[in-house]
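Running co-folding for adenosine-5-diphosphoribose.
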Amino acid sequence: MRTQVVIIGGGPAGLLLGQLLQRQGIDTVLLERHSREYVLARIRAGVLEAGLVDLLHQAGVGERMQRNGLRHEEIYLAHSNRGFRIDFRQLCDSAVMVYGQTELTLDLYQARDAMNATMLHQVDQVEIHGADTDKPRVSFIHDGREQNFECDFIAGCDGFHGVSRNSVPADQRTLFERVYPLGWLGVLSRTPPVSDELIYASHARGFALCSMRSPGLSRYYIQVALEDSVQQWPDEAFWRELKRRIPHDAAESIVSGDSIEKSIAPLRSFVAEPMRWGRLFLCGDAAHIVPPTGAKGLNLAASDVYYLWRALSQYYEDGDEQDIDNYSAMALSRVWKAERFSWSMTNLLHRFPEQSQFDLRMQQAQLDYLESSRAAQTALAENYLGLPY
Ligand code: APR
Ligand code: PHB
């Protein structure tokens, strides 16, 4: 079978790329290892940069986000139970959109269905062949039968644990990694959010984050030891610890409840270079991971997709390969800036096992500087809002 672009991975990167290319009249086939229900059941973050909001509108999937999403013009940075606001409107005249990645993925699935574009779930043994030739091919097992798609290009949107990145010969790629000695214990609860804005809290007992999905659905995180298990954190222990780390007034007014989802995510910074090998292009978590402290994971996947969509559209329009040749450099330039921002937010707001008194003073001085300097707040705001594509 033949198509123009085979997309491996039905997460937000693969679905958004498929949507943009199909609308351009470029034929795509999307291969996903799990079932649709499994993909949609994954709880992920939900802070969208203005650039992603625009891209979703360009892709024709922005309507429900615009209706149900929450526009946020500030975040609250707390330390030692007090804090200050980073006012995006005042500093950068912009805002982010709080809209769950699960909702976004659902919108993209429905849009792909509406276009009747090919999407195969529960595919197995996906293998990439001839990515370094002008006749690439992807083989896989579906419904118990071996199948193959010949294509012009392959988009590896299969996440950190996918096959695409590992299809690039080891001597052709360089991996960069920082693993943090801590995790985030996240809880989703059918309770009203404790505040209208996200609260990022630094505390001697560790980091905490108050976020939300909707006026009736809240998402909270606390920093825990990497080796901790969810069993060690019954709901009441979670709420008790969260209240200790957030500002007093928030702790007094927070509404606790049963967790409807609870999981621990490790914190890692990871980049694979290059993001292109022959006719194979890596997008999203397949090429890079950021710690969630900067809310950049989904947004970086989107900017990769934006660059690849533009490059492939140019190629199919007039055969021009310039953007295709520049894809990796363009995507990596934005990736490394977001990696730096996420790494700096992680170092600023968490407590580390080996931290010295001097390190603690550095964190404190950075927070004091941030609180007192408009320039420092503007730098944080423009990175949080998203650097231009
Ligand atoms: N074959 C087919 N599909 C695969 C394979 C494979 N061998 N391996 C993985 N996949 C699928 C996964 O099941 C998943 O649905 O690829 C998809 C990758 O999706 P994500 O992991 O969500 O990655 P991405 O689309 O790049 O989105 C990045 O997701 O994890 C968050 O924080 C991250 O917000 C960021 C966003
Ligand atoms: C979330 O809502 O899950 C969330 C928000 C901001 C972050 C990370 C996660 O930085």
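Result summary
The two ends are 35 Å apart (CA to CA).
The chain has a mean pLDDT of 97.
Job closed.
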